[in-house]
Amino acid sequence: MDSVKTLAKALAPVCGVDEAALSDWIEVPKNTEMGDYAFPCFRLSKTMRKAPNLIAAELQAALTLPEGFVKCEAVGGYLNFFTDKGAVAGTVLNRVLSEGDAYGTSTEGNGKTVCIEYSSINIAKPFGFHHLPSTAIGNALYRIYKALGYNTVGINHLGDWGTQFGKMITAYKLWGTKPVDEYSIRELVALYVRFHDEADRDPSLNDTARAWFHKIEQGDPEALELWTKMKDATIREVKVTYQRMGVDFDSWAGEAFYTDKMQPIIDELREKGISKLDQGAEIVDLSEWNMPPCMIVKSDGSTIYATRDLAAACYRKATYDFSKLLYVVAYQQDLHFKQFFKVLELMGRDWVKDCVHVNFGMVSMEGGAFHTREGKVLYLDDVLDAAVEKTYDIICEKSPDLLDKRSAAEAVGVGAILWSVLYNSRIKDVTFSWEKVLNFDGETAPYVQYTHARACSVLRKAGERPDTFDASLLDDPESTALLKAIAAFPEAVRSAAEKYEPYVVARAIMQIANAFNRFYYEQRIMADDLNVRAARLALCDATRQTLKNGLNLLGLTAPERM
Question: How far is residue 509's CA from residue 548's CA, in Å, rounded to a whole number?
């Protein structure tokens, strides 16, 4: 199964290079006649001080072929390796078909906890399209780490504290027309926008808002009740959108949860001489590390999100004893996390080395960026609705006889939106295009989902098939390429976790989909020879299973009919 690792292990003693590095160097030739795997010997030219062709000949003579490989050829500056295709095919298929939904999973994370903070919406504010990258990437990482055996804790660090709630309450008291818990997010946003419009004309409203937030801080019953109901109304509504995307959280503890946990942090910073006063504010001077100061307490005595992040990290370590704490937050917050991690380091929290800012790029729509100020926002559920409707129209055209078109449209439409930020490296800026994301023929979610449905269709039409098959019959180039892509899937899952990059899984299942469609068109699956037919159906079933597993890891549904 792990042919690359097997080769790397065999090459390491004769190359004098670390196995991990060798694994990255081994290539898969596009022309299978050149071999199943190739090692570029020019990589060793500098250390061995020889021409690549001489290195290739020397390594060939010294190397003992590992099990599963039948031949090694030195061609130019490459070592080309040929596998025992029948043995490899049997190993791959038997593993996939026996493990089923567990194929691609492992137990390597057993006994370890990974905390992942993602999505982190603001209460009583829009759940906008700009929340999609954090939500999709975080959810995919959550699923990937869970598949690898980790105890995974998903955290929605809600933005549920600050003077904006004083503004919300002021607006509600002045212009509210029904019980606050009957308000939708959009209606609360409209109140918030009206507050700002009115405050531009009457600045005294800002004083009223500060007074109401102070009441929340002091535990005033009315203020707390209104704040709590706004929070509950928001969570109730956004959970519907999360459910559509297959997203859930183990913790909804937001900024407010840490308000009573900050003082010990502030006291420790003072006692250790880490913080200092600067123009009435309390800061940690980070000039020694070429960073601006990290503010801990404002000059008016209030705290900011950095203080709450410090308290949250310490709380999570004490509560979960994590081996990793991931923050899936946009790259615009790079400086904040560098400052915040440095303060933890200065406090002597050696576990800060296990804290990782998993940053990502911008997402924009063709024709312009998204705007969230003054009520101008593209809501995420509107985008999902539009994707589902557009997909429904496409399905009606392509598959008019499909019985449950609505369910298929929901799975494909929502999946297309998620895929749009999961298929490329997370740091890459994404320009959203309906034409691209809903294309059934491009490198899109609909294409992968359709391939899964196609494999399901083949298996349905085939009916019952033999329990046994001869994998050695799968020796054609298309079958070999497909088997190789399926065999690479477990390593892709591990690599995605190691790099915090869900796109590694997305690319792996795209390769499987491409390879299957070539196999589907070039080889007759329902061959007249029953032995060949049995082997090809087994390969079709392994494809279906692996695509389903990969889509699920990304938070996408794998429809059986489209």
Answer: 9
Per-residue pLDDT of the chain (562 residues; tens, 9 = 90+): 578 888 999 999 999 898 889 988 999 888 878 898 999 999 999 888 999 999 999 999 999 999 889 999 999 899 999 988 888 899 999 999 999 999 999 999 999 999 999 999 999 888 888 899 999 999 999 999 999 999 999 999 999 998 899 999 999 999 999 999 899 999 999 999 999 999 999 999 999 999 999 999 889 999 999 999 999 999 999 999 999 999 999 999 999 999 999 999 999 999 999 999 999 999 999 999 999 999 999 888 878 889 999 999 999 999 999 999 999 999 999 999 999 999 999 999 999 999 999 999 988 776 554 444 444 678 899 999 999 999 999 999 989 999 999 999 999 999 999 999 999 999 988 787 777 888 878 899 999 999 999 999 999 999 988 889 999 999 899 999 999 999 999 999 999 999 999 999 999 999 999 999 999 999 999 999 999 999 999 999 999 999 999 999 999 999 999 8
- Write down the residue that tokens 């993602």 correspond to: 118
**Rounded to an integer, what distance in angstroms lies between the CA atom of residue 380 and that of residue 211?**
33
Strand residues in 312-445 grouped as ranges (E): 324-328, 355-358, 363-365, 430-432
Could you report how far apart the first and last alpha carbons of the chain are, in Å?
A: 31
Give SS3 for 163: coil
- In the block, tokens 């449950």 appear at 404
Determine the Cα–Cα distance for residues 205 and 199; give it in Å rounded to an integer.
6
- The answer to whether 280 and 288 are in contact (CB under 8 A) is no
CB neighbour list of residue 267: distance below 8 Å, 6 or more residues apart: none
Q: Report DSSP state, residue 153.
A: E
Contact at 8 Å (CB) between 191 and 171? yes
Which two structure tokens, joined as six digits, stand for 413? 């439409």
* Total-model pTM: 0.90
Q: Determine how β-strand 151-155 pairs with β-strand 324-328.
A: unpaired
Query: Per-residue b/e over 183-219, b at no fewer than 16 CB within 10 Å?
Result: bebebbbebbbebeeebeeeeebbebbbebbebbeee
Structural domains of the chain in order of their starting residue, each with its CATH number:
3-83 (3.30.1360.70), 162-247 (no CATH), 263-302 (no CATH), 381-553 (1.10.730.10)
User: DSSP readout, 484-547?
Assistant: HHHHTHHHHHHHHHHHT-THHHHHHHHHHHHHHHHHHHHS-TT-SSHHHHHHHHHHHHHHHHHH
Which has the closest alpha carbon to 543: 450, 421, 414? 450
Q: Which amino acid, one-letter code, is at 145?
A: Y
Spatial CB neighbours of 63, under 8 Å, sequence gap ≥ 6: 10, 11, 14, 72, 79
Q: Which residues sit opposite 122 in a β-bridge?
A: 159
- Give strand pairing partners of 81: 37, 72
Number of helices followed by number of strands (H, E) in the chain: 21, 12
Q: Determine the Cα–Cα distance for residues 39 and 399; give it in Å rounded to an integer.
A: 46
